[in-house]
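To illustrate the input format used throughout this study, we show a single complete record. The first block contains the structure-token representation of the backbone; no residue identities are included at this stage. The design step must infer an amino acid for every position from geometry alone.
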């Protein structure tokens, strides 16, 4: 083994541990709470990469939660990743069949997590092509998508996808229209559906494409370990193989062209960075940055309260929707705002101000005052956040959001809110 192969294998394991932690498998920090999980590609990649301990825990999870799984998608994604992966997946499913006769541990996922939007959709419409179509349309609600464009990510055949789109269109959930020379589909009321689903994650990665790229990098690392003479030819083939996949991963940089030993080193730096980024390794690469989480409580007697917690400290109050210490003009304004959504939005706005202030302080120093944050879009964004993620909460419930989730959510939504004059 080499330092490069050890590092990328370690990052790949970190990625798996974090994604399974979102599904309720304990033993690792959750670094993907703002990204939608795609279950079947994850299981197939796990069969290929995971160590014995993680395989054992994920097999237990699959045994307990078999009703969440799509056999059709599992087989399709295993076939797409090639013969080696298919063999690993067969061994994984054989172990799973043996486990089905035994009682598994309690590993039920918390379907309220934003990252588990796929499982919430399956709870709503079943483990069907309809659930995958809804997921893909929710990912980019303002962009029409053709059936052909959704086939690969949906993980179902063309016939099943066409039937799902027809049913959703007949039901009025989706709208079909012509764009150029093809028929495309959009959700009719995406915001209402998002609210019914208790909100959406900030991003919907193409995990199938991501895992194919990571798998190619791991194969390269294994093939070239200790064999410097084969690195140029092998790296060249890997780059050709993953270029199309990279185009499906927003924000991912293209790998450098490989022509000689010098460019192989550049490719390996790119590969190491790519796998680390997918794993969220940048989170642990900043030891001076303490994790910050925000919790919003919907009070039994009405109103909202938010707390903020820095890693290693106790939670402290941040905002209260009916704070009696408000200035008189603020109290008068509050009396005119009788809706719960407006009160929740003000609490969320306080959270966004705290989050932005912390970001400024990290870059400019700890003396940056609160009023240094100026953003005319925050009121509208806060109300949208409250409508999407807080409105479904019942009195007495609480929801926790990481600073990274807030960052990703606001980054994906900002373009929808015009700046105020």
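Output of the design step:
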């Amino acid at each position: 083994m080499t330092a490069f192969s050890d590092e990328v294998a370690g990052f790949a394991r970190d990625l798996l541990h974090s994604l399974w932690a979102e599904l309720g498998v304990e033993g690792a920090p959750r670094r993907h709470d703002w990204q939608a999980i795609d279950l079947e590609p994850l299981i197939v990649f796990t069969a290929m990469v995971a160590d014995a301990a993680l395989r054992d825990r994920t097999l237990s999870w699959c045994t307990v939660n078999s009703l969440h799984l799509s056999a059709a998608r599992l087989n399709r994604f295993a076939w797409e990743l090639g013969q080696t992966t298919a063999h690993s997946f067969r061994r994984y499913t054989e172990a799973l069949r043996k486990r089905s006769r035994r009682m598994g541990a309690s590993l039920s996922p918390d379907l309220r997590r934003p990252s588990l939007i796929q499982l919430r959709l399956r709870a709503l419409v079943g483990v069907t092509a309809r659930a995958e179509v809804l997921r893909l349309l929710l990912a980019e609600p303002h962009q029409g998508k053709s059936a052909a464009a959704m086939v690969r990510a949906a993980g179902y055949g063309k016939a099943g996808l066409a039937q799902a789109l027809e049913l959703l269109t007949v039901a009025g959930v989706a709208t079909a229209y012509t764009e150029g020379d093809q028929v495309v589909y959009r959700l009719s009321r995406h915001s209402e559906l998002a609210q019914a689903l208790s909100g959406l994650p900030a991003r919907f990665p193409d995990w199938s494409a991501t895992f194919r790229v990571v798998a190619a990098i791991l194969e390269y690392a294994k093939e070239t370990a200790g064999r410097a003479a084969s690195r140029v030819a092998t790296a060249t083939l890997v780059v050709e193989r993953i270029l199309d996949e990279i185009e499906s991963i927003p924000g991912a940089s293209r790998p450098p062209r490989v022509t000689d030993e010098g460019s192989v080193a550049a490719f390996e730096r790119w590969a190491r960075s790519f796998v680390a980024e997918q794993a969220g390794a940048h989170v642990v690469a900043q030891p001076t940055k303490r994790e910050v989480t925000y919790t919003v409580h919907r009070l039994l007697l009405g109103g909202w309260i938010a707390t903020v917690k820095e890693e290693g400290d106790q939670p402290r109050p941040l905002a209260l929707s009916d704070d009696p210490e408000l200035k008189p003009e603020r109290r008068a304004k509050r009396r005119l705002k009788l809706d719960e959504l407006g009160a929740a939005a003000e609490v969320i706005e306080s959270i966004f101000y705290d989050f932005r202030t912390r970001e400024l302080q990290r870059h400019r120093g700890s003396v940056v005052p609160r009023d240094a944050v100026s953003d005319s879009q925050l009121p509208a964004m806060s109300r949208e956040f409250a409508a999407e993620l807080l409105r479904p909460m019942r009195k007495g419930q609480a929801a926790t959001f990481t600073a990274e989730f807030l960052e990703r959510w606001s980054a994906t939504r900002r373009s929808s809110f015009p700046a105020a004059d």
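Structural context for interpreting the output: The first strand starts at residue 145 and ends at 146. The chain has three domains: 1-106+208-285, 113-197, 292-416.
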